Amino acid sequence: MAAPAPARRTARCARWEGVGGPFTVVESPLPGQLRTGEVLVEIEMATVCGSDLHSVTGGRPAPSPGVLGHEQVGRVVEVGPDEPQCLDGTPVAPGLRVVWSVTASCQSCTRCRADLPQKCLHLRKYGHETWDEQSPLRGGFATHCLLLPGTAIAAVDEGLPAEVAAPISCATATVAAVVGAAGPIGPGTRALVNGAGMLGQTAVAMLAASGAEVLAIDPHARRREQALRFGAVEARPVGSAIAETDVALELSGAPDAVQSCVDSLAVGGVAVLAGSVSPGPAARLDPEQLVRGLHRVVGVHNYHPRDLRTAVEFSTENHRARPFAELVAGRYRLDELESAFAAARRGEVPRQAIVP
């Protein structure tokens, strides 16, 4: 384990001022004595997620001002009383390299007790919190983040590139949840992945690693070519004919893609929808087709802590087999966030990296 970096007296945050507003780099004192269950992490790298981009462009409601960013990797600086453990039982201690969940749950409400902590009634979300002058370190676009009690924390190997480790907190863990919701995947499973962005490429790789025969659908030729490198047996443009599939994953949010996933299911098939996080037109669902086909349609939003652990394990074991690092470009400072978002809007690479 590497030694912790020398303690800083202050932290810096890139405060987003709201739709149409700038990012302002703000200096803030580091927290004093941490409370029970809190963990202070110094951020090594963060990445600009699609939901960050949607927030900035007004495509989804987001509190402002605030600190965006929820995909990051960092190193523990300080731990509060009753120090927590990582998901694998590793004690959280200064110097440990970690990723953490998008959400923090209360662990006591009815949803938490029903094993749905990702939909906790008192949920807190990193990168989705209103600016708090007394406790501003609540997002990834900062030098530090103060983790709340109820946050799932996972240790990551020192050899895992930061470009691979940072997206684990959102993209990779979400895909782990989506693939897990699809049920057992194995050799001979016919799988459809609709949308070959960051989540889609990761899903192709995860399904292929389990032995599935994966068809990727995306409107962009470059993404289709990339999907083949991530393990798809075939990649086709939107509107192509699709044979019956056992598993259909919808990761783009496009209404037509949702419909094609549902319509593609073979007997006993399951469609897992994760891309539809904004209001849109309803998809058509034929009840007779659903009943006679023994179909399942499952929604995934946020993810369970076990999915974060699965994502870390998958990335550690597979990052050399597929070109994951190519999904992240740039190394922007906090005062260059507007340039990072401009690059993200161009969409040439799924993620832009921030190195605070």
From TrEMBL:
It is an enzyme of class 1 (oxidoreductase). Keywords: Metal-binding, NAD, Oxidoreductase, Zinc. Its cofactor is Zn(2+). The keyword tRNA processing does not apply. Belongs to the zinc-containing alcohol dehydrogenase family. NCBIfam families: HpnZ_proposed. This is alcohol dehydrogenase. It comes from Saccharopolyspora halophila.
